[in-house]
Structures are given as C-alpha cells and as structure tokens.
Amino acid sequence: MRKALVAGMTLALVGLPQLGLPIDFVSWLKKEIFEKLKVTGRRSLGYHSHSVEGDASAFQLLTNYGYGGKAFTDIGYLDIRGRDILGSLNFDAQLDTNKFANPQDRRFSVEYDGKPYRVTVGDVYTTLLNSNRLATFSKYAKGVVAGYSKGPLQVRGVFTEARTSARTITLQGNNSAGPYYLQFSQIVRGTEEVQVDGQPQRLGEDYVINYELGSITFINKIITPTSAIVVTFEALGFNQSEGSILGGGATYDFGQAGRLGLTYLEQDSGAGGTLSTRLERFQGAGAPSTPYFLQFEPLLTEPITVKLDGILQTEGIDYYFDPENPVIFFFTRFIPLTSTIDVVYTPRPTQSLDGDRSVWGVDYRIPYGRSGQNGYLLVMQATGKLESPVSPQSGTARGVESVYRQGPLQLRAGLRDIPADYVSVESRGFNRNERAVDLGVEYEGSYLDAALQHINSSIAIRKVDAGGNVSFSPARNTLVKASASYRRTAGEPWTLELARQKSRSTGPETTVDSASVTTSRTFGNVITHWGYDHQEAQGPTSTGPDPDIQSVTIDSLRLQSSYVANEAWTFGLRAGVNAIRSSEGDGTGRDVALTASYQPNSKLSVVGNYIDSASGAIAALGSFQSGFGLGYNGNGFSNGLVGSGFSPGATDLRRWELRTTYNLSDKANLSGIVYHNDASGAITSNSKTFGYDLGLEYAFDRAHRLWLHYADTKTDFQQNATQATSQTFMVSFNASPPGRLSYSLDFGALLTGGNSLFQQDGLMFDAGIAYRLAPRQRLRFQYSWNRTEGYFGQDSIFASAFYDYQLYRNIALSAAYRFRDVRNLDSNATGGAYRSKGLDLELTFTFAP
Q: What's residue 682's pLDDT?
C-alpha cells in the first residue's frame, strides 16, 4: 500500500504536465496538492543479475546495501510531508527501505482535519482526552485516532496495534553525572520524563539522552548514591507479542457547573510470536577503545554472528560484549573506517504484559471562579481489571484534587486511593499503586516566592515470581519540604530549600535530611550559577533479618560559568563535586568540563576541551533506597525491568582534546586534532587512548582539489598488558576540468603495531573516471584494490562500468557491469572470500529539498 502510494505520487509529480489534461485542472492539482507536498530523498528501483562463486552470504551482505541476493530491489529514503492538502489533509511519511536503518526513521501517517472531526491513521502518538489521571493513555503506536469537538462536547477514540512498551523504572545514583542506562535501547524520541528525588528534569538543561542506546547523562549534576532517578518512557519492541488497544473518552463542559468526563480502555495482550533475528551494520570506528552499539538488547541464549568484511569473528578473541550492558561491544584491534561490520542477533523480547486489561473511569471537574481562574476541584474514579490464568486482579481507584488560587497565594490538596490490585492499560507516567495525601501551599510575591509541601504515601510494591504469581509488600514514604526564593536584583535570585524524607520498605526506616542553596551572579563578562547541597542520611544498606545500618553525610558544590574575554577568547566551565562521609569510608565524586575557544580572525580557530568525571571511592551504598523510587519497576500502570537488570557501578573518565583549523590561503586549509581518553570502571573499554589527526586540503583551482590526512593512535588496556597502535595515511585527488572528462584518485595505508596478536597492515587504491557523452548521458568507470596482511588478511579487487541516462529532471536510468574478487590471505579466516560478476539496471528518483 505504501509503495503504491509513493509510486503514484512520484509519477504524478513528474508526469501530469505531460498528459495533456486541461490547464485549469492541472493548475488546481498543483495548487491544492503538489505545491503543498514537500518530497526529499532518493529512491532506486533495480534489477540485478549476478553469478557468485564462493561465500554467497558475504556477497549478499556487502552488495546493494545487504540485498545482494535479490534480483529486484527497492532501495532508498523518502521524506514526504504535506500540510492542508485539499484544505483538510496532512501527510507525514518517512520511508526507508535500507535494512540497516534506524527503526525510528520509518513512519507513515495521514490526518484528516475537517472541523469538528479529526482522524489520524498510521504511526501516531495516540492519546485520549486524559481528564482522569487514574485512567490515562498516551502511547506511540500504529493505529487510528478519531475525534469530535464541537461546543461543550469532546469525544476521542483510539484503536492501535502494539509497537512500543511503556516503562517506568528506578535507578540509583552512583555519585557521578552518568551515563545512566535505562536497560532498554531504542527509546522513542520525546517520550521520556525524568525525575530525580521527585523533581522533574528538563531535557537540554538538566540532562541529555541517547535514544538509540537508552542512556541519560546529567548536566552539571552529580547524582548521589542516596538519590533515586525515576524515568518513564516508551521503547520500541522487537520479538514482542502483537497486542492491541481499543478505547475512547468523552467530556462535556457544563460551564460553571463543571465538566463531566468518561473513559473506557481495553488492552489485548496478544499471542506470543516466534523469535526473529535482526541484521545491523557498522562502519569501522578506529581505535579498539571505541564502542559499537546495537539498537536492541540481544537475547544471550541465542547465537550472535559478527562478521568483519564478510569474515566471521570470534567472541572473546576478536570482539567482546560489555559485561554490564550487552548492547555495547568492542573490537580488540584497530578497525579501519573503510571496513564493514555486520551483526546478526536475536533481540530480547520486551513485551511483558501478563494478561488482557480493561479500565473504565468517570471524573467531574468543578471550576473555582470564572473559567476556572481561581482553580478547580476534580473528583475521579476508575475500575480496572486484569484477566490472567495465574493472578487475575481487579480493583477500584479513587482520587480528589483541588487547587485554589487567590492573589499571590495558592493552596493545593490531593487524596489518592489506588489499591494494590488496581490495574489500568499500559501507559507511561509516574502513577503507582498507593494511598496518599498531598498538601501544599505556595506564595508568589514581587521579590519573594515561598512554598511548603507535605506528602504521606502508603505504597504497594508489586512482585512477580517465576511462575507469574503476583504478590505485594507494603512500603511508606513521607516528605516535608519548604523552599523560598528571593530575587531583589534581576537575574540574581537566591533560592533555599529544606526537606526531610522518611521511608520504610522491608527493613528499618530510612531518613534523608537535605538542604540546598542556589544563586546566580554576573561579574562583568563572567556569568555564574552556583549551588550547594548538604545531605544527611541514615538507613539500611543490606537486606535480611539483621541489616547493616549506615549513616551518610554528603556535601555537593555545583558551578556553571561562562566568560567572554574579548572577541577572540571565550571560556566555559561546568563543575560539580560530591564529598561523601559514611561509617564505612569516605569518597569524592566529581564532574568537571572546561572549554576554551580562540578565534582571532576568520582564518584561525582553536578549541580545547577537558573532561574529568569520576564516581570516587563510594559509588553505591548497597541496597540503600530512598522513598522516591518505591512502587515503580512494574505496577498497575506500567511495566518495569525485564529480568534483573544491571547496576552501573563506579565510573572514571578523563578526556582532553585540542582542535584547530587554519586557512593558510584561499587555496589551502589545515586542520588538526590531538586527544587523550582514559576510561575505566563499569560499562567502559577500560583503556587509555592517545591520538592525533592532521589534515590538509589544497585547491589548485576550481576544478582540481587535493586532500591529505594522517592519523596516529595508541591504546593501552588496563586489565592486561595489551597495547595496540595504528597509523593511517590517506591521499585523495578530484578533478573536474572544463570539458567532458572528470576523474578521482584515492590512496590509503594502514600500519598497526604493539604487542597485540591481531595486528593488520593494509593498502588501498581507488580510481574513478567519468565521461559526458551528451548533456544527459554519461559513462563511468571505477576500480578499487584493497589488500590487508596479517590477522585475517584479504586481497580484494572491484571493477565496474556504468552508463547513466537522465530521463527527466529527477529521474535517471543507470546500467552497470560489476566484477569483484575477494580472496583470504589468512588460512584461519572463515568465510568472506568470493568472486562475483553481473549486470545491474537501476531507475533512480531524486528529490532535492
């Protein structure tokens, strides 16, 4: 369906003016449809006929983007977007047929917006009206969302197929800024919400996230071992059972009399599917300290195949997976940037629904003042049910919320009664099964803000045994917090916050007392932000009938500063230090980042960076658990971890680098970088790497250009005496003189050393020539030779001849004859050697932005 639609649109875009249709009709089509569509990308339809001798699987992997064994291919990427088409249609599609593409880069949706109706079909963020927080639904899924909104009535319905799993997990701080791994990869972009000790964190200001890897790193903030990080998110599923969600919500606004809301949702867990494998491709990344990241966590009980340039690699000898996070793997030797790595593995199933779910809810909201300007009163109730042959559950949750505002004063009160056996459909958020009271008062004046909050919560901790039986254990968390902010001078506020938290789970009570002061100051061209935190905590650090009790004192200092000395010099500093004193020892964690930039003119630019991050001697406090993280990792609203997960442990990273670019003249540019990286601890390569790169670009004239590049690296592994060194040299020359002829030449060399058993030296040569027969016709010839000696050495020859014909502005036909001969020079190599020859025909559509 999608391919047919794209093909039709493509032909229409390029062919309608040629069909002889009435001018008015063609103009109307252009105005209402094609001028409102934005198409970018490239798509090639191909026919391939090749004969192969030798390793056919290597040929398939290394030819036509992994489609070497197919006679017909459809390869490329198209981004198609349209707004207000025919006055009411919106179109959004990212179509990528590359089997190595990021799965999040593929989506397709069509929206009809004809008031009062709105219908969206495809890959969409589905959400109900969510007027009842006990029965909410927000999820990225494939399905249909239909809505009606007119006057006081709003109705919305959804029907979706499962594409993601919603998770809310708790991570304990390790006295560092991170990274903290969510233990799921392929986090759906924009779905994450992060809290640290109950405080919301802002993306880009408080943390950054790697969505593909599933890791969070905090900015200018060291997370102490007494702190709890709670993250709710959605992760793309693979090998999960296909489930579905059907539901709807409606609200009717009676004006000052209030608003009534109704919600119904049901979730079918679906039948379990068979396991399937996934193929991912990487380009070589140089030094062995460089990590490679799979897009999903592999199922370790299934085989994993790693090939480098078609040659089978051996785990533990050629590469290894990080023992803490199996998404990450490293090679034990230098991998050239020209090499191709292919990994075939079985992603771990992520779906963990334990049965079909349904929930219905009712809520009523009464406004205070005209249009609710003075606040509201919200009463809500929801009944949820889980159908399970092992542990069926059902329960009714109730809640009351009220906010009253008058002048500078705001009062807030909330009551929640969410029993342990209450379940809703799977959705992200910070809901949990608890009976809680939440009271607060806030004052906002001209120069002074103040707030007081009290929370008392009885929490049900959900546990599931190996047989799927569900049990609950009680926990309690109380919090009293007071804060004040004074801002007499614009841009220079003072903020003070005091808090006491008490919690109890399976052992003795945990108490955490904290105080913090923050301010900002400007001294001429220096802008600074300061923060100081003091924390005293006591609680169990082990489990069992006689747990260990520790007392901990933590002092934290944070500083963020920027300084513009003049037009040439700028500086930046981000620093945080945590000093921990406990009954079992002391430790200091730090996170320092310093940047300096020098640009006296348009010719010269120098940028230096220094990073020093370490957890210190105390990265964890055993099983110490503050109350902020209780009740997550699986409850009646969302799932948690799959399996036992992993703890990040201590980390230590020091890195510095210096980059420079210099325009020697209008024809010559010089660039260079020197760097040192020292990483140790959990989820690192535990190695030191020193390296430098030098580059020169020289333009003889507009038609002739030369590039020179040299790189040198040295890596020492800390867990053994292994050392690996590499030197690479590259020369490139491109020529496009006036006339019909253009050509390019490339030469490269690789030398490796050290005491590693996996040394490999190599040479490569590429040549290309093109001759324009006519304005729309061209002949091209390419030749490539590559030889590596030593460990898994190979000799490779590739030659091809092309004929290109431009059929229309953005449509071209290409015919090619290709020959490739790959031979193994190492008798220990398994696979990778083959000889192929054959014909390719490709029809290519190119759309420029």
A: 59
Instruction: Name, in order, each residue with C-beta under 8 angstroms of 247's C-beta and a sequence gap of 6 or more.
Output: 128, 137, 157, 158, 263, 264, 265, 266, 425
Does residue 559 contact residue 529 with C-beta atoms inside 8 Å?
Answer: yes
Nearest to 139 by CA among 247, 230, 212: 247
Beta strands 153-161; 138-150: pairing state: antiparallel
| Residue 403 main-chain phi, psi, to 5 deg | -130, 130
The CA distance from 556 to 571, in Å, is 23
pLDDT block averages, 10 residues each, the chain of length 849: 48 47 71 82 92 89 84 88 86 81 79 90 86 88 91 93 82 82 82 91 89 84 86 78 82 93 88 72 79 83 87 87 82 82 83 78 94 92 87 91 94 95 89 94 92 94 76 91 88 90 86 93 87 90 76 89 90 88 79 91 93 68 75 84 50 86 93 90 74 94 94 83 87 94 95 80 94 94 93 91 91 94 87 91 87
The neighbour count for residue 133, using CB atoms within 10 Å, is 18
- Taken in order of first residue, the domains within the chain and their CATH numbers are 278-345 (no CATH), 653-797+826-835 (2.40.160.10)
Query: Checking DSSP bridges between strand 228-236 and strand 193-196, what pairing results, if any?
Result: antiparallel
Q: Which residues contact 270 (CB under 8 A, 6 or more apart)?
A: 162, 241, 242, 243, 244, 351
List Cβ neighbours of 622 (8 Å cut-off, separation of 6 or more). 540, 541, 542, 548, 550
Q: Long-range contacts made by residues 396-403, C-beta under 8 angstroms, separation at least 24?
A: 396/422, 397/134, 397/422, 398/134, 399/133, 399/134, 401/376, 401/377, 402/375, 402/376, 402/377, 402/378, 403/375, 403/376
Residue type, position 25, single letter: F
Give first-to-last CA distance, the chain, whole Å: 25
The four Cα atoms 312, 316, 322, 325 give a dihedral, to 10 degrees, of: 70
Tokens of 168: 């809310």
Distance between CA 88 and CA 149 in Å, rounded?
Answer: 16
Radius of gyration, CA atoms only, the chain: 31
Buried b (16+ CB within 10 A) or exposed e, 144-170: ebbbeeeeeebbbbbebebbbbbbbbb
Number of other CB atoms surrounding residue 769 within 10 Å: 15
CA nearest neighbour of 6 among 93, 110, 103, 105: 93
Residue 651 tokens read as 């980390």
The per-residue DSSP string of 228-291 comes to: EEEEEEEEE-SS----EEEEEEEEEE-GGG-EEEEEEEEEE---------EEEEEE--BSTT--
Alpha helices in 540-698 (DSSP H): none
C-alpha separations of 129 from 126, 291, 379, 424 in Å:
10, 43, 16, 16
State the Cα–Cα distance between residues 530 and 535, nearest whole angstrom: 17
CA distance 515 to 706: 61
By the 8 A CB rule, do 621 and 550 touch?
Answer: yes
Q: What is the distance between the alpha carbons of residues 89 and 457, in angstroms, rounded to a whole number?
A: 48
| Count of residues in the chain | 849
